[in-house]
Specification:
This protein is mainly α. The protein has helices spanning 5-20, 27-59. The protein is elongated, with a radius of gyration of 15 Å. The two termini are 25 Å apart. The model has no long low-confidence stretch (mean pLDDT 81).
Amino acid sequence: MYFTCSSLQTDIQEFYEVTLLNSQKSYEQKIEEANQVAEKWEKTTSATDHEDLQKKQEVF
């Protein structure tokens, strides 16, 4: 999975509206969900960075 700038903005906006603005969720729930989203983005970014590195190495 690769995040484009617009899909990342959409994900951030959705996370903000659904999680952070939800007054019925506790701070603990919000923190847990924030950590889950961060892990998802880190995995995606790491995979994308690895693919980009491989492509750069193929060019040389």
